[in-house]
Amino acid sequence: MAEFLPKLNHVFKFGWQLLKSSTSSLPRKSQRLSSATPRHYSHGQPSFGLLFDIDGVLVRGRTPIPAAKQCFRNLVDGNGKYRVPVVFVTNAGNCMRQTKAEQLSHLLEVEVSPDQVMLSHSPLRMFSHFHRKCVLVSGQGPVTEVAHNLGFHNVVTIDMLREAYPLLDVVDHNRRPKDVLPPTRELPLIEAVILFGEPIRWETNLQLIVDVLLTNGQPGNPVSSLHYPHIPVLACNMDLMWMAEAKNPRFGHGMFLVCLENIYKKITGHELKYEALIGKPSVITYNYAELLVRQQAESLGWAEPVERLYAIGDNPMADIYGANLYNRYLQASQETRAQAQVKGGVTEVTEAWQGLCLGTPHDVGCLPEACLSILVCTGVYSRDEQDLPSDPQQTVTERIFHGHRDFRFDPSLTQPSFVVQDVREAVELIFQQEGCPLE
User: Fold this and answer.
1) CA distance 99 to 380
2) Are 73 and 101 in contact (CB under 8 A)?
3) Whole-prediction pTM value?
């Protein structure tokens, strides 16, 4: 991956600009495939890859959704080899890729490699300009190990911070210092804040993160004046809610971000700014997922490029919004390249979009032509049969916007290419559309 890093700036800059503006100048209509005209492959090789969300699509908490096991039995051959590239794209971020791969292998009863797993924080591997800075990390699980695995060398956790400055965390009376005031010890200057996922003690994390932002990375100092813009904040996972075993969705990291943003603004009068927002529906996340799909295709011995991606999810505001936004991004890249060819500027455009090919010698034609979204009804989104409208997709767009504050709401981006009951139906539909035998 090291050789790819210098060329990824184009991806981040363009993707971030597109995320913030969701510009209306790009095509908005959700692309659909006609079931009457499936594709057929004379060379015997498919040309598509699959992106699977996990929670609400494959599992509910620790319980696999019944359709998922059968689906994956059909996706592997007798030797356990996948028929098409498969990547699991989840906004979870409280573990290592190896751990998640082992969990999926056990739950789905097929072999899942860590190279097939993409957690919300996985693209941070490519933010190399932060790797040698002292960063405060927030989340749960093995956050230090996760940070080191992503390339960060100098890591401070919330627990380390509260131990160094024991007078900062006083909401819980049982955690307040007793009798004698404990000594403090200095930590290195904190240069950035990395938010991996929702923490366990929200009051502690909210207080200490705000302390760091208000003191410009020196939480042991008094706030003498407002430092704004504040030090960089990078957040992974923007899901407001997610689906576990409970009958209704649970708060996700997006809810924690809402709290942090509003606390900071209430105190300072200024908006909390993000250096980067990573995880679905970020374009950066889908760029990285496409790289993993391409690597899977190479491991399968495919000679032809992956032309289409199918993203299967249960959350219209994350999975569907993200897949459609990335599809818009792909269309924009193709239009930009076509316009440059007409104007004779192919060289400049090829250089500008080279970052999308992640260091490979190929032209911008290495990008897929489309990313199609498929919504399943086993998670955050569900169809109540007694209230089902004549158009089953009508309920998808008639919603309160649960996306992140920095995303301009575009209802067309919540409109899936297809709505199906579960993941098995989704995969069967994809193979039918592609004209490939599933069994």
Assistant:
1) 24
2) no
3) 0.81
